[in-house]
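From the shared-data thread, chain only:
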Amino acid sequence: MQKITIKTIGIIGAGVAGIGAARLLSQAGFECEVFEKGDQVGGVWTAGYHTFGLQTPKSLYEVPDYPMPDSYPRVPSGAELQAYFENYAKDYKVFEKIRFNTDITRLEQDKNGNWNVHYIDQQSGESANKQFDFVVVATGIYFDPYIPEFPGQDTFKGKIMHSSEYRAPSSVTGQKVVVVGFGKSALDVAGDVAKFTKQTSLVYRKAHWPIPMDVLGFLDVRRIYLTRLASAFLPLYQRPDKWAKTLHEHFPSLVSGFWRLTESIIKFQYPLKQCDVLSDEPIETDIFNLDFLPRKEVYQLMQQGKIKNQRTSIKSFTETSIVLENGEEVACDVVIFGTGYKSNYSFLPKAFKKSQEADGVYLYRHIIHPDLPNMAFIGRAATFSNSLTSHLASVWLVNFLKGKFQLPEREQMLAEIEAIKQWKRSFMPAISSRATVIKLHMVHYHDELLRDAAINPYRKKNRFLEWLSDYRPADYREILSEITDS
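Structure, as tokens:
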């Protein structure tokens, strides 16, 4: 990376990753300005489908040194999360640094390594640009709603919408509705609309293992699966420690038994076979899909017949129905696609766009593109605690910019990127965002970020707790508060 004095930093996006980066970089003495396309802080939490919200306990998603209010429920709503992050931005003096309603059109780097951020003020319609020594892209991986196309779709006389557009039950009350997909949004929407519709069908190609928030209804899942001990049973990390390597090499039946037991417990807890939603993949690999902690009621609605499952895909549309690949035709008035989002990298430099592969863009430490000097990406590593992960990535970035460690040479970074690419492709499902997936390996990823910055990654009081106690944001509280302008 070209060495220049970094004083000013432009941050794109005022979601969780963007405001966290702005807070920590400002705390370290850098002059920051945040550009936000919308008119609110919070990113994905500023708007969503009816009843959308967090899928994990609040203590797993909070900022390490900024606990969520005691008044919040265990699983907060989207509106509560937006308010929480807006208060966070205000309390850490980030809110005043945000330029709202600003659409970034392109980023250009000059011969001196500085970045020109070109943008349009959506309210005035005026175009402008501003120069920064460094740019942080914190727009995440979720951009434009994705709705696939099918033959006859334009002849359908009913309503077609994305799950993000489902805002009120009144839009589906008394109608025949088809929900497409098997991710969090698809199941949440199906579970909600089934209470108001005449008929609800769920169409999906693949089912995935649900992750219960409470194992057997009483034991917090984090206390088992977010520990260092449990992480050793996962498909080996790219650079496994000796203990995990020994476990897999000499006790493979123990590793397999751990996951088969997990599957048995989940099948006992949820009527997966009866509802035809049993995954075809073993849980230890399926868990690296973009999985979720589902609402239990959706399976109850399936069992009661209020949600009719169709394990197939759409073949075509007619004026009043969808035709499925299994030969069935389903009459419907509304089709809701819970099919995720597609990437929009239109404003990013050519070097980034050229790196796009079928499973995403791979970066060094999920943060640095070797061919884009003085630029970092925060919020592109998907774990079960994205808020924590993005804050630790910002800690890593602060320490790098303060000269606490150096990046490897370009060729070394490329070699590391190739290694992580091959590691992920060796066992993770082939999804379009595989490049960003970390999931339950998050403790290992967090360890790497902290080791790079010469920070002790072991945050527990003793070895017993280190292995058997679950890791959560509060364990990293001091790391954030210790960052200063020095």
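The first strand starts at residue 8 and ends at 12.
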